[in-house]
Fold these 4 entries.
Entry 1:
Amino acid sequence: MAPFLATVGAIVMLVLSALACGGDPAEPTAPSPPHVQPSTPTAAGTHRAVPPASRRAVRIVFVDVGQGDAILVRSGAREMLVDGGADGAAAAVIAAARGAGIADLDLVVTSHMHADHIGATDELVRFYRPERALIAGGCDGALRRAFKVARTHVRQARRGDTFTLGRVKVKVLSPADCAGEANEESLVLLLEVAGRRLLLTGDLTGPNEAAVGEICSRGPPIYLLKVAHHGSRHSTASGFLAAVAPAFAIVCVGPNPYGHPTRETIGRLTVAGACTYSTQHNGTIALTIGASGATTWRFARSSKALARASREKGGAGG
């Protein structure tokens, strides 16, 4: 816990109000660490009191777990984990959850069953004992056993499913069915809160990526895109980006032998007009969305974007 608190003490808070992506974010002259109350997980189905000021805010945390995905969502007293990172990532996820005021989990979502997304999920399930889980396809043996021990109700998700998490409306955009290609059949979530739309894509690629883009093109532009497959050149196609038109993008990535994120993908994001951050460059990234839609960003390390947009877009406060 001590290293985490030290990191939190160095956090840079960035309030994005009418920000254009063409310039570096300005850092406050005297940043102060957020107040973090020590907490321990409660029994499944129970929730600790949420401070009144936080009840209407939604927080989304992209945890720095190295080469892997782990995303926390808190809306009032309701909490969700999307993927749990690779083996060894549980401590980082638990520390980030505590920093976000998360003491237990209502729902665990697994985008697909690759080790860099679910390696630590079984440990986190045993720790938090979530009430429910959504999976895209078959279930890894270790994770299946953890769900059984935790008495978690597991459900296979499909395109068109919807649910709410506090003030967050969630819709499953993919997959329509599962034929065995894990990345292409990643479970994709569209989150809507206070007029903002956020897209969590797992390792989505191929025809399903195009289908998700077509669905998203029918509504307002995506405020935040979680870039698929850690910035692989095989995902995040130009046509997809034209359809979703993200203002901001986050790549969940760490040291790896694959060249992620690739220059091709970062280039496509830049041309599409997205300000792009990564957990490797910026550390754990937390976005808070207030009831009015106003946003606050926090970065555990640098607040400087990995890549700036090549064209000016409406900012976080607009």
Note: The chain has a mean pLDDT of 84.
Entry 2:
Amino acid sequence: MALLKVKTTELEQLDTKVAAPAKAEAPKKEKDALGRTYGTGRRKNAIARVWIKAGKGKFSVNNRELDNYFPVETLRMKILLPFALTEMTGKFDVLCTVKGGGHTGQAGAIQLGIARALDKFDSVYHVTLRKNGMLTRDSRVVERKKYGKVKARKSTQFSKR
């Protein structure tokens, strides 16, 4: 009988330890001394490092203006989409460096970097960005060429004779 009492009290103690969940901490805002937040974006072979801070909408890509670096309107719209979704267009200054890949990959990398930096700046934007797929990395990359093929999947021309 004594063993049974000891085991039940041990079980009760375990239940109280398990029943009391730890408090969930709110995500901390990660800003540096200059008030900037950082986000890394990747797409295909492009890697973008993005810093945002509250400002008047100044945008710099590799020390060039956005319109100068990306002359195609659709790429500029893609890059600015996280700001449009969170209704913060023109309220942040963006400084980013991007390398590797082509124009489309670089635009996608900058877009992901901006979305991640906005998420760190204020967690209020997280739900909107997540719902619209802005925080998910597009993992598609070019498939490698296989031996015996012309490209990754294209075969040589078939000859009957």
Note: The mean pLDDT is 87.
Entry 3:
Amino acid sequence: MTALSIGLDPGKRSDPASLAVVEFQFVARDGPRDQQGERWIVRDARQWPLGTPHPVVVEDSGAVADQTGGYLVFDQTGVGETYHDLFNLARKQKRLASRTRGVLITSGQMPSDIGIPKEVLVRRFEAKLSSGRVVVAESCSLKEVLRQQLERFGYEFTKRGATTYEALKDADHDDLPLAVMLATYFKKYQPGDPRYLARDGQLYPYRSLSHDPY
């Protein structure tokens, strides 16, 4: 089974709820086989219209998780607490089979089992993005929207010296990038085995099936 993660940003009153389906792969590179590269491919993305009821977003995103077999990670901060309860209810009522995990995006310094500082989340994602390890698939339904939001996402310093991580223009949204960040950061929860892209361009279901000499 392909290793898929699903990131869900519940959004805010002025920002739409957003979802990203991301596949994690190993990629061949020169060196020992235990030093293979990694990449994340955004296979699909979705946004709901502003004002969509939370139960609808939960139902829809749960259906995506069940259909793809992906592990769903969502931002449990703020309104996300409601999503935590709704996902648990859906699972209890047998309307959701897939696993979900709520995480708190904090302003702290150290990651924990239930929380991740936004600075850590953003900077680790920026490292993946700048090195070409995050790819938006051409088949992704919102590929142009996502690419634009990724280009306009960054950080600014406030007058008090604090750092904010968000869209750099008031008219832009950062919900899709945050959904991708959640999916790529928590790769250890992905079910299935990553596929392996050999240097000859062939994609194998597992690394062990490749005849790559490295």
Note: The CA atoms of residues 85 and 206 lie 36 Å apart.
Entry 4:
Amino acid sequence: MRSVLLLSAILFCLVSFASKASDPPFWASSSISGDTLFFIQEGGQQRAAAFLLFVPKSMPELRSATGEVHYAPGTDFVWRPGSRRIELPAGSRIPFKRRADMYPAKDSPNSIPRASDRIGRSLLFGGGHFFHDLQIVASYKTQERWTGAIPRNKRKLLQKTIERCLISVVIR
């Protein structure tokens, strides 16, 4: 139990100090950056697709999750104004998976057993950069506003954890 609490505190510290205080949260901004996409080609569909959180006002910018690759509209992806959907044309450099790839055969590489396995398939699984390298990050401006739940600040409930984070940062 103690190791779980320690791990939770370490993760809290990393997240707290890694995020930029200057970046407003997505629910309070019309500039979206870091909208993560994972492209899936559904059975019967010719193109893989993913959906943005909001409808962009203009062409979104897509990059690899590492930020190293910038994807070209029209060549690597297709977006139609007024839509959240982004599709991949033939020859796109953007990685994707077919729906069937998400459920590999039992004991296949990069698979993990499913809790309810009636079809003899596992779930696609991979540690490290496996999924990270399959994701794309979108940046765009939107007129839409978030209508879902907004997290409340609970710092007072984690005061001792925050103090320990601050102490560990000062000690380094």
Note: The chain has two helices and eleven strands.
